[in-house]
Amino acid sequence: MTSSAEPVSRAERKKQELRREIIDAAFDCFAERGYHATGIADVATRLGIGHGTFYRYFQNKRDIVDHVVDDLVGRITGALTAENAPDAVSTLAEYREQSARIGESLGRIFGEDPRVPRLLLFEAPGIDRAMAERILDLFDLAAALTSAYLSHGVELGYLRADLDVENTARAINGMILGTAISSLRTPEAQAAQSEALRRVMYDGIAAR
Amino acid sequence: MTSSAEPVSRAERKKQELRREIIDAAFDCFAERGYHATGIADVATRLGIGHGTFYRYFQNKRDIVDHVVDDLVGRITGALTAENAPDAVSTLAEYREQSARIGESLGRIFGEDPRVPRLLLFEAPGIDRAMAERILDLFDLAAALTSAYLSHGVELGYLRADLDVENTARAINGMILGTAISSLRTPEAQAAQSEALRRVMYDGIAAR
DNA sequence: GCTGGAACGGAATCGCGTGTCAGTTTCGGA
DNA sequence: TCCGAAACTGACACGCGATTCCGTTCCAGC
């Protein structure tokens, strides 16, 4: 199950490489012109290959967008699970730090390249029902993850005992979502946005 | 400029009525099957009219989706501005009540008919750049509105003096957005979701 | 009832993009 | 150097759906 277990001839490697390039090119096209507005020919032309070649690597147009999304989802979940286990912290201060770290990771992915949120939030849901469901699944997954962080905090007593973990998780994720969308227009506000989000989380908005 | 100033023959009224029906039918189709998957013929068939007739009322397919969105946006801004001026309240308690009222209005619009958020958030942004910009404008408008509420609260002293009004507004709107999206899967959680949102706003999540 | 003009319907047109396939090129091994 | 398999290419077939257009129907006014 290691990555070197497969038989990798020279040709095989070339093939995988092109496959990767096609996915990247498709991502570029879909994010820039939109899924419906880009033809297979556009993707192929961008790579300087004939569009017939495309079909040697992917079943059809619908097939590749799944791979593109796979790729993005993988990148995101990777960044999130990398160094931030829900149970790695035990005080509010540590929790705050951890959330800042997570916020930064997400900010890097979403803010650095607006094409990521554009594709994931603006293009993908309109492709078809199945893709819309996939995006909703992603939200559910994120909610479960955030829930885990919150539950842990409630158990250790540094978060409100009466916290409605499930729904609060969705509210927090909503704020993150809002940040991602804002970054489409004003990428430079990222940091301030992220800080404001954390202030709301920890302090609320009311005067003391 | 009153609504009765126009010359309204019988035929004229019939025409306006059919126009309305076409908009409604288009909304149904776009929200259910998606914009790209519905043909003009689908909209026409749903009304039992020939699809040629459609073109007597709207320029083209792109034209009508603008009208559909106009309609929804109008409904939403109407509900928001109706009975809730930003400066109508002067204490935190009143403010809480007002936000509960606004949440309820929004819940009614988004929660009662999932097709509304589905069209606005899932279908529309993927239609083309211009429509995506429209939706972003809508977010900006909402942010400005929420900002006004927050500013007012800061001025009167019942909200934190050091509140980053702009970015906090976007964070709060993000939570609302999250609620709207959740309602696509679990409409019954609406109320709890809305309550959790307000708890986060006013109390934060940390233990006292 | 008749008539002229507006509204309607749906067959026909048109353009576009997906997916196929047969001919061509590339390349590793003998 | 030569051979055969695999990869590549792009002209083409095809279907689909937006838009047009003209023959038909409807209806208000006379």
Description:
- 2 copies of one chain form a homodimer.
- Chain A is an all-alpha fold.
- The first copy, chain A, contains 9 helices and no strands.
- The radius of gyration of chain A is 20 Å and the shape is elongated.
- Residues 1-6 of chain A have low confidence and may be disordered.
- Chain B binds a DNA duplex (30 and 30 nucleotides) through α1, α2 and α3.
Key terms:
homodimer; 208 residues; mainly alpha; elongated; disordered N terminus; DNA-binding
User: How many runs of DSSP E, i.e. beta strands of chain A?
Assistant: 0
Overall shape of chain A: elongated
Low-confidence stretches of chain A: 1-6
Q: What Rg of chain A do the Cα atoms give?
A: 20 Å
Task: Describe the structure concisely for a colleague.
Two copies of one chain form a homodimer. In chain A, 74% of the residues lie in helices and 0% in strands. Chain A has helices at residues 10-33, 40-47, 51-57, 61-81, 92-112, 115-123, 129-156, 165-185, 190-203.
Which SSEs are present, and which pair or pack?
Two copies of one chain form a homodimer.
Chain A: H1 10-33, H2 40-47, H3 51-57, H4 61-81, H5 92-112, H6 115-123, H7 129-156, H8 165-185, H9 190-203
Helix pairs in contact in A: 1-2, 1-4, 1-6, 2-3, 4-5, 5-8, 5-9, 7-8, 8-9
The structure holds a DNA duplex (30 and 30 nucleotides).
